[in-house]
Amino acid sequence: MRFRLTAFGLHVLGSAGALTLVLGTLYLGWYRWPGWYLSSVLHVVGIVVLVDLVIGPTLTLIVANPGKVRRVFARDVALIVTVQLAALVYGAGALWNGRPLYYTFSTDSLDIVQASDVESDEMARARSENPAFAPHWYSRPRWVWAPLPDNPDEAMHIVNSVVLGGGADVIDMPRYFPSCQGLK
Fold it and tell me: Do 103 and 141 meet the contact criterion of CB atoms below 8 Å apart?
């Protein structure tokens, strides 16, 4: 039993270290307060923690046997760790795509814009038309004001596309975010 508990403890320790590194980087780098709560990320974090801290070490506890050939035991643990790492990479990718880019105020509401909300062609247009607000991989969430464009035709096009469905709202278009220097 001591062999099993040692293997279990080492697996928990390694899993906790990897999980702390990934979640700590995401939290300190991109989610911060209030993004962690506003983007409902705790559901994804719960699944990642369940797989990495509960299921993986428990499987190691089950397969650990002092009478088992070490090479077979190492293969079993390597397979468990590989599945765990795949799940961790998938979970980290889901968290990365859901990271908040902007907390936007537009008309009469405050909304969160996540990385998955902004289309790649819109990011490219923002980089050329409004580089100060263009999102990058290292961008931290920013509080911005997202008014409709001054051009009435463009504004009507955006409103109609949102009302009729399927179109992007002005909060998902960083090229329209005004800089604070232009505000009076």
Answer: yes
